[in-house]
Amino acid sequence: MKVGLLLAGSSTDMGFMQSGFDGLKGAEGELGINLSVFEGVKPEQADMEKSLRKLAEASPDLIVVHGGQNAKAATNVVGEFPKVMFVVTQSDVVGPNLTSYEVLQEESAWLAGAAAGLLTKTNTVGHMSGIRVTPGLKGRAAYVNGVAHTNPQAKVLPNFPGNQDDVELAPRLAAAEISAGADYIFTMLNAGRPGVAQAIDASGGKAREFGNVRDFTQDDPKISVGSAVADSGAAAFAAVKDFVRGDFKADTTHLIGLEDPEAVRLTLADDVPQTVRDKIKQLTSDIVAKITVAIEYSGPEFPTP
């Protein structure tokens, strides 16, 4: 099987793009696919469409377009290559040769908000993302609502500065949120994430972050108090596995949530109190069974410095 992968970013960003890349490298080893990767594509529609066409012109069996920011480009291109199957991860676009596989990062983001609400001493918590793509907006809304569920008095400082990878902007924004009282920040960045760690380290213990995508508590638990794991690589891997095994269906959306803890879960650093751990465990079960995670937010935003 010939599989193409489009990354609107870097395969070594230690975040979302690398997760997708790692998922398909796993598929390459486990499922024996022949993988071609286009990375470093600018997250602009014209560039994404041009790169998708180049991938499709090589006549692969399947193209995985990693990230909802690519959804419009994919819908514009798929009709030109009816013999190629396309997958967009973290999206809900579908068509005769197009399907979507989505890891529900809003569920682990909600849990991160719930934990932040329980842990905050200042009753102010932060949020940082980048560009306003649907998964990021859902994650922001879920985080805010998770905070409100466990701590209705807490204030949230949400921000979308327009760039996931700016290592100079990220520490300025994190420092501004810390100065505004945030003692926990939910960081939904890619290559810009080290800048947040820099600002947290400079704060002298005033703040910590919740990571996302993968478990950042394994890197430095003094910086990361938890991580809203949402392994988007699991969506990419699942799509290829279904395709190789003949279970792939076009014109559908495949969802992966907390019921699959290998893909979606909240991790916590070792020093998080047991009472908080117990509450998060119960809330995880509640989400699977009965809690509907809100994915819309219309409140104020924290200004970019």
State the strand order across the main sheet.
2-1-3-4-5-11
Could you name the CATH homologous superfamily of the largest domain?
Answer: Response regulator
Q: What is CATH's topology name of the largest domain? A: Rossmann fold
Radius of gyration: 19 Å
Uncertain segments:
none
Number of strands: 12
Q: Helicity, in percent? A: 25-40%
CATH class category name of the largest domain: Alpha Beta
Query: Terminal Cα separation, in Å?
Result: 48 Å
User: Globular, elongated, flat, extended or rod-shaped: what is the shape?
Assistant: globular
Number of domains: 2
Can you give a write-up of this model?
With 305 residues, the chain is of the alpha/beta class. It has two domains: 2-104 and 232-256, Rossmann fold, CATH 3.40.50; 105-230 and 264-289, Rossmann fold, CATH 3.40.50. Helix content is 39%, strand content 20%. The protein contains nine helices and twelve strands. The strands form two sheets. It has a six-stranded parallel beta sheet with strand order 2-1-3-4-5-11, with helices on both faces. Helix 1 links the parallel strand 1 (2-7) and strand 2. Helix 2 (45-57) packs across helix 3, helix 4 (105-119) runs antiparallel to helix 9 and helix 6 crosses helix 7. It is globular and about 55 Å long. The relative contact order is 0.16.
Describe the SSE topology.
Layout: E1 2-7, H1 16-31, E2 34-38, H2 45-57, E3 62-66, H3 71-77, E4 85-89, E5 98-103, H4 105-119, E6 124-128, H5 134-150, E7 155-157, H6 169-179, E8 184-187, H7 193-202, E9 208-213, E10 224-230, H8 232-245, E11 253-256, E12 264-268, H9 274-289
Helix pairs in contact: 1-8, 2-3, 4-5, 4-9, 6-7
